[in-house]
Amino acid sequence: MTSVLPTGTSKPAASGAQRVGVLLVNLGTPDTADAPGVRVYLKEFLSDARVIEDQGLVWKLILNGIILRRRPRTKALDYRKIWNNEKNESPLKTITRSQAEKLADALADRTHVVVDWAMRYGNPSIRAGVEALIAQGCDRILAVPLYPQYSASTSATVCDEVFRVLSRLRAQPTLRVTPPYYDDEAYIEALAASIDGHLATLTFKPELIVASFHGMPQSYVDKGDPYQDHCIATTNALRRRLGMDETKLLLTFQSRFGNDEWLQPYTDKTMERLAREGVRRIAVVTPGFAADCLETLEEIAQENAEIFKHNGGEQFAAIPCLNDSDAGMDVIRTLVLRELQGWI
Ligand SMILES: C=CC1=C(C)c2cc3[nH]c(cc4nc(cc5[nH]c(cc1n2)c(C)c5CCC(=O)O)C(CCC(=O)O)=C4C)c(C)c3C=C
Ligand SMILES: [Fe+2]
Ligand SMILES: [Fe+2]
């Protein structure tokens, strides 16, 4: 059996039929919806220099002295509003697991392909995922960061962690990584079908749709992160596909964190402005999230709905993420099969 031991003690991979591993990876989420659970998660997340690039002394003081003392309590309350109590886990975990299970079913006839899933922060960890695949005989691994739009703070840090795990191995598996898929036809088609499908179930006709993406500091984009360009490309492709212009399908950025300037226009300010300008009925879609999570289920569907209504809006619909829907699974399967060419 292939050993997963620190360099110097591992054995070469066993000979014989080797397998191909596919590891779906999403951002991560707390293990428990209480302050201690959220604190552990936030500490790991916000100590990543891909997320907060300046990890200097001032940041460490702010993180340990202020953020990790206050934020876990308030965020735990938010997590409790969306928690999957049946499984006692966050929706991000439930959905990512289901995506992996459905992908495994779709690839069932390729008996040498093994599918697993992991979280960049928290559990199940990337280390556990890679080790489990290797233990099952995988000498080739395809890592699938579940972010349609690339950013260093999401996609790159997944690769960093996978390589960190591999760096401890003498007998490394061969690695591939799926590229960002922000303008992939399968993805745009799935989004369009999902939007059309959900609009058809509403009891009202939205005057416009807001496409809200997770934000990031403007300075990261100024230094070369292509994330904003990818979000714009997705929105433009969706506009073309849905026959909507920029007054009917708006692009905004949510989840501002800290005091720096983040990508604009901000989602919450846009909700306020639209309602004040007389818009009464809107729908919000969140194309940057492969799975529903705190940022969509709480921040959009609850917080931003309230902002819109508080300022005079009347009807607000949050369109679910692609999740493990048939359309969503089409996207993941297409990406994975394309990247596995030559391996299966
Ligand atoms: C989908 C793309 C995401 C990008 C880009 C992103 C950048 C980014 N995020 C933070 C800070 C926080 N994000 C938080 C939650 C969170 N972020 C994403 C995705 C992206 N983040 C998801 C899917 C989630 C939800 C996870 C869940 O448990 O459901 C949080 C935690 C919540 C909170 O305390 O507000 C923080 C903090 C930064 C600083 C950043 C770019 C640099
Ligand atoms: Fe985030
Ligand atoms: Fe948020």
Give the number of domains. Answer: 2
Supply the helix-strand structural class. alpha/beta
Range of helix content = 40-55%
Anisotropy-based shape: globular
Structure report:
The protein has 11 helices and 8 strands. Helix 6 (185-201) packs across helix 8 and helix 9 runs parallel beside helix 10 (294-310). It has helices at 35-46, 57-82, 91-106, 126-135, 152-166, 185-201, 218-222, 227-242, 267-276, 294-310, 326-339, and strands at residues 19-28, 113-121, 138-145, 174-177, 208-214, 249-254, 281-285, 315-318. The chain starts with 18 loop residues before the first strand and ends in a 5-residue tail after the last helix. The strands form 2 sheets. It has a 4-stranded parallel beta sheet with strand order 2-1-3-4, sandwiched between helices. The protein has a 4-stranded parallel beta sheet with strand order 6-5-7-8, sandwiched between helices. With 344 residues, it is α/β, with parallel strands linked by helices. The protein folds into 2 domains: 19-181 and 328-339, Rossmann fold (3-Layer(aba) Sandwich), CATH 3.40.50.1400; 185-318, Rossmann fold, CATH 3.40.50. Strand 7, helix 10 (294-310) and strand 8 form a beta-alpha-beta unit. The model is unreliable at 1-15 (pLDDT under 50). The structure holds the ligand C=CC1=C(C)c2cc3[nH]c(cc4nc(cc5[nH]c(cc1n2)c(C)c5CCC(=O)O)C(CCC(=O)O)=C4C)c(C)c3C=C and fe (ii) ion (FE2) (2 copies).
